[in-house]
Amino acid sequence: MPRIVNPLDEMLFKEVLKEQQRIRVYIEKARYGKLKTIIEGIDEKEFDLEDIAKKLKAKLACGGTVKKGRIELQGDHREKVKKLLADLGFSEDLIEIE
User: Fold this and answer.
1) pLDDT tens digit sequence for 38-68
2) Which segments of 1-98 does DSSP mark as H helices, in order?
3) If I label 45, which of 3, 10, 71, 82 is the partner at 20 to 30 A Cα–Cα?
């Protein structure tokens, strides 16, 4: 990441980064046949995955965690997650739902 001195420039840089993230959202089967929504592709060096997960869990009223650089949410929330990530500033066109 280039060195940015001006805080406004840093905010703009983060916004541009958000719009360039290719995010993949899909489901996996967890224990006992339960589903979990997996969100991967968000750069964990540039963005606080814990904070994003916290916001998503609050909006979706579900549990979840951050593991191995990806966000895991309990239940199938694929379509809702796409809209919520777009609301957080990520480009909706680059969010791939499987």
Assistant:
1) 999 988 888 889 999 999 999 999 999 999 9
2) 7-20, 49-60, 78-87
3) 82
